[in-house]
Please model this.
Amino acid sequence: MHDVLVVGGGNAALCAALMAREAGASVLLLEASPREWRGGNSQHTRNLRCMHDAPQDVLQDAYPEEEFWQDLLKVTGGRTDEALARLVIRASATCRPWMRRHGVRFQPSLAGTLHLSRTNAFFMGGGKALVNAYYRSAERLGVDVRYDAPVDALELRDGRFVAARIGGERIEARSCVLACGGFESNREWLREAWGQDARGEWPADNFLIRGTRFNQGVLLKHMMAQGADTIGDPTQAHCVAIDARAPLYDGGIVTRVDAVSLGVMVNRDAVRFYDEGEDFWPKRYAIWGRLVALQPGQIGYCIIDSKAVGRFMPPVFPGVQAGSLPELARALQLDEHRFVQTLADYNGACRVGRFDHTVLDDCHTEGLVPPKTHWARPITTPPFYGYALRPGITFTYLGLKTDARARVHFGGAPSDNLFVAGEMMAGNVLGQGYTAGVGMSIGTAFGRIAGAQAARAALGEAKHAHA
Model:
């Protein structure tokens, strides 16, 4: 029997497994996916949001605790547990030396990565390289890993973990860490959460999944049925507007279109529906998936002209190109008259000052609803480009309620040997909204806490058993 069982195979699970092993516990990690798809959503990530009080290696200037907290408070609209959020923020300041010891390498942010060089540390080789580094380290330290091992049930006794089940197989351990993600790739659960719209359509049928197809939420649903305390709204998620041509699963970061703040967004009725220049893109990119999800047919269109080209990270698919706005409307199959009128209204409302995409500049609209607060320039320079966008769900926020020791709770009482980390508990910190890199901050902080606590619980029990 192993001391610690870790269910999951992404960043949080690996951090937990490594910490538990370093503490002297024997560890078994169960990953639902085959080896080649290991790593969950972490394989699609690029960076980690980090607090720091002075310049540090790849991070410029300073990003103090209070500023990180205010950024998080703003995007969540206050739907966050401040104590747990600050725990994550402080942990983000000290985790990188530990990550390096396990083979993770960092690099300066690339040109065009949304001016994140001050706030976010980028992984050399991206999330796939991070995941591979952790698996190599786990193997070297003697962590046992099994692939194609989807846990579908837990055996619990009075809130204590006893065993995990994979079908008919029963796996005992002295303690357990759950780090197997949300339910974003479970279409039926998404349909249930989002329901039907006024036209009798199911919005969730038009969602794409940016991340892994293996996050079906089976264990989350099982834990809810077992009476575990939950937190979060099932319709809230890290949801990004991505290219409508993206694959159903695992499109990852390259399917994102980062041109929204440089142009306008219209729905299928060719009408604008939100301020494209409200704030810096890293603080706002993750609201657009939900905004598009609330539009008719769950589709939106990002419209730019040639002035914007070269100012954003090029997406994987080229935009639809046209020599005139009426031609672009026809190519996108939008109402030509209304589209041209929407763009004319926008262009006429632009008050162009000194355009600067790196600051909250003074280019704005006047007398337009919704306004465009910054970076508003007339869309008049051909060729014109349009990108059809759909909601791309990265991970869902409904999860298990936890505390500063990463314990799973039942009726308000914490378990003494069952812990949770990563996307499965991110809703404690993220009630809504998102800011770039914070998912990895949460997974790293709580993965490490859960692993250390699980080892302590298991080794304490082993010691007691041998006494």
